[in-house]
Amino acid sequence: MISGRAIARVATREAECFHAANPRAFAHHAAATGWFQSVPFHWMKDWPSPVPIVAMSAKDATLTSIDGQTYDDFCLGDTASLFGHSPPPLARALAKQASEGLSYMLPTERGAALSARLAAMFGLPLWQVTTTASEANRGVIRWCRGISGRAKILTFNGAYHGAVNDAFVDLKNGQPVMRASLVGQVHDLRDTTTVIEFNDQGALADALRGGDIACVLAEPVMTNVGMVRDSPGFLQTLRTLCDETGTLLVFDETHTISSGYGGHGITHGPKPDLMVVGKSIGGGVPCAVYGFSTEVAARMAALNQSRPAGHSGIGTTLSANALAITAMDAMLSEVITRPAYDHMLRGAARLVAGLEAEIANANLDWHVAQVGARIEFLTCPAPPRNGSEAKAAMYPELEAAIHLFLANRGILLAPFHNMMLVSPVTGDDQIDRLVDGFADCTKALKE
Predict the structure, then answer these.
(1) In a 10 Å sphere around its CB, with 0-12 CB exposed, 13-18 middle and 19+ buried, how is residue 447 labelled?
(2) 249 vs 244: CA distance, rounded Å
(3) What are the C-alpha distances in Å from 135 to residues 132, 143, 161, 172, 219?
(4) Spatial contact of 328 and 93, defined as CB atoms under 8 Å apart
(5) Burial degree of 40 (CB within 10 A; 0-12, 13-18, 19+)
(6) d(CA 28, CA 56)
(7) What is the CB neighbour count within 10 angstroms for residue 143?
(8) Which tens digit of pLDDT belongs to each residue from 231-261?
(9) Can you tell me the distance from the alpha carbon of 272 to that of 269, in angstroms, rounded to the nearest whole number?
């Protein structure tokens, strides 16, 4: 058991060490008064460090700050750089495209090859490109409502699908509530969003058999409330119930692309009707895609023929710009490969084994969760079964202290619930340094 006093002691000491080692980051923060809260976007304030580390450059799985600190990077842009920072094929393709134009609002020659690569990798035949996964999810929800004639969607408590209003409904004491942290929300989302607990097959059957759900929007494994794995048979039951009730199944695989080549649905099943992938698909260039079956495409085409002319409410001018198409084509043809996944999964297994051994050595009632190349250590004894259990198990002060301890020793985790990613260019030496740093941290917390 880690005491609150020990956590506060370690956190205070590590904050002082961070301040001493990062004078330029503090100066930068003080000078950036033109940014709201001194950062270009507000979530950069969510890092546990006293001020954000200021990046100077990154290559492969290493990041360097303006203070000259070098980090083994296991955050990797919170999945945006899952396959490493600036892979050479991507850098070459972007440099060439930059000299030829960035956005035309027209298709490009590389686009045809890219659509075929997406179909081959993810097993769905037809695709569209957006600028972010949030935009893709919003578009998919509109299509599902449009082609089904149903107004409601179903999501799972604690899920995250980007800046998508429809997903911001939580359960509190079993009752749906609007997420309290939302800024400027004026419409009651509960009228058109049903929320249940992940892995609750009974609640799922009751909700879908009502016949008013257009689609289920889900991560096949929940990744933004800690990590919540699917119970045996749950995803297949989800697939079966969607088929039975005429409900479309949408997998948001922006994070679970870590599961294996083609994502979780291809690697483990079942296959969705539509899927969304963002962030890493362009190696960090802002872009995302959504794919769908031929049956869904036929229904979309029929809807387009029947509706009046005008804006569909889907897409932006920058969607499918030339730079995004080039980035994704380079990534899928030369970087996101089966051998890359082989390396990632071997490294992930090494990291999981090392963390589990150190947890056992420290006699802690913690555990490690894994979704392919995505790993977390959770400071609770048993894996949570749903979003409510995952939220109850969170210990933000402890997680922040661990994060800052490791950052001061050149190891960068994601700022949210200490998530780690293993890339195709992450070395065994980096993994071993993380495990050693984790062991030193647990010892410091138990002193």
Answers:
(1) exposed
(2) 12
(3) 5, 12, 10, 28, 16
(4) no
(5) exposed
(6) 12
(7) 25
(8) 999 999 999 999 999 999 999 999 999 999 9
(9) 9
Q: What is the pLDDT of residues 311-325, one digit of tens each?
A: 999 999 999 999 999
How far apart are alpha carbons 246 and 259 in whole angstroms? 28
269-327 per-position pLDDT tens digit: 999 999 999 999 999 999 999 999 999 999 999 999 999 999 999 999 999 999 999 99
CA 372 to chain centre: 13
Instruction: Supply φ then ψ for residue 353, to 5 degrees.
Output: -60, -40
Find out whether the peptide bond into 270 is cis, omega within 30 degrees of 0: yes
d(CA 273, CA 292): 6
Instruction: Say what angle helices 338-361 and 428-446 make with each other, to 10 degrees.
Output: 20
Six-digit token pair at 219?
A: 């991560």
Residue found under tokens 């009707």: 273
Rounded to whole angstroms, the Cα distance separating 189 from 78 reads 28
Q: Which residues of 190-217 are buried (b: 16+ CB within 10 A; e: fewer)?
A: eebbbbbbbbbeebbbebbeeebbbbbb
- For 361-407, the pLDDT digits (tens) are 999 999 999 999 999 999 998 899 999 999 999 999 999 999 999 99
- pLDDT of 1 > 80? The answer is no
pTM of the predicted protein model: 0.97
- Secondary structure E strands in 117-156: 126-130, 152-156
Chain-centre distance for alpha carbon 351: 20
- 374-378: strand order across its sheet: 367-371, 374-378, 419-421
What CA–CA distance (Å, rounded) separates 142 from 311? 12
Tell me the CA distances in angstroms from 162 to 15, 88, 263, 416, one per residue in order: 30, 29, 18, 14
